[in-house]
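Re: Re: ligand-bound prediction request (bumping)

Still looking for help on this. To restate: I need the protein modeled with phosphoenolpyruvate bound, output as structure tokens. Inputs repeated here so nobody has to scroll up.
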Amino acid sequence: SALRTPLIVGNWKMNLNHREAAQFMQQLAWILRDGRFDPSACEIAILPPFTSIHSVQVLVQADKLSICYGAQTVSVTSQGAFTGDVSADMLSALGCTYVLVGHSERRRYHSDDDANLVDQVRATLAAGMQPILCVGEGYEERREGIELDYAVGQVDDITRDLSEEDARKLIIAYEPVWAIGTGLVATPQSAQDAAHAIRTHLERTYSADLAAQARILYGGSVTSANALTLLTQARDMDGFLIGGASLEAEEFSAIIQQI
Ligand code: PEP
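Reply:
Sorry for the wait, this slipped through. Here it is.
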């Protein structure tokens, strides 16, 4: 939709150290400079591990790249005796635009439950960044046919007490867990159904205007081979959250250049 600029997000997970991140950014900049890429037609964001964020920042600034970046999670507290945590203010000081909140790997391997995720969303917004909230059913819910209610329920769990002003800054990534890192991509119809259900929920909860402007992404085994079909056939979907296929500049840019 002309209302919504497509957004392509690379989630590096625990890959690419600060040197590899610098190499990736140089390569991506080089490919995009020579290729068919119109920065006004598509927004690109990279979510490196914490230790690689500064490398990405340096390259973005040095080459004046129209590429945003962010973090994969954030502490719910602002500072102090929280060994191992990184605050939202630290991330915004590094120029981060986005923070991924509630990725299925965080929900599974860490204590990122609903109460904690609501606080991550609030901490991200308070520091002037935008949360990218991940939702999506597992294989069981899909088998039972309750995937849409499940994903919409996850959105509601986090947005229930969020004001309309705050909800306007939220980006939602629909990522069916069975599709993440498995090579099993959702059909364009399922991606569309989920994006549509989430958009309808936002319209009912907030307003038609907010729903029309909200960016909803699909994630789960997106590659340069399936991106175009998904994007053209799932009309409520505004881009991708990409794991594996974001780790090599050539493959990642091959997706970007189809937008
Ligand atoms: C992800 O981790 O958000 C993801 C979608 O991974 P992949 O693209 O590798 O399935």
